[in-house]
Design goal:
This protein has one domain. By secondary structure, the protein is α+β, with helices and mostly antiparallel strands. The two termini are 16 Å apart. It has a two-stranded antiparallel ribbon. It has 3 helices and 2 strands, in the order βααβα. The mean pLDDT is 89. Keywords: Plasmid.
């Protein structure tokens, strides 16, 4: 699963990924959420950013376009499953 650890200079064109894909609980893998991931989430997915707050959770992004309403529902559903 590719997450936005190096936005916006990622080698795998991470900057092209702007739609929500999933959450990654970094406490489970011993990593930390990057400042880049936090900034990208705050800019592109403010609802997800508010849900995450100060938790060590990254957002994984995709290039696959999504309907905004469906994306918001998916964010809430997947966050509640963390």
């Amino acid at each position: 699963m590719a997450c936005s650890y190096s936005y916006p200079t990622s080698k795998d064109n991470e900057q092209d990924k702007i739609y929500f894909r999933s959450f990654l609980n970094n406490d489970l893998n011993g990593k930390k959420r990057s400042l880049e991931n936090k900034a990208k989430t705050e800019k592109l997915l403010p609802d997800a950013h508010k849900l995450i707050g100060t938790r060590n959770i990254s957002v994984c992004f995709t290039r696959t376009p999504k309907d905004e309403r469906k994306e918001k529902e998916e964010i809430k559903t997947k966050f509640n499953k963390l």
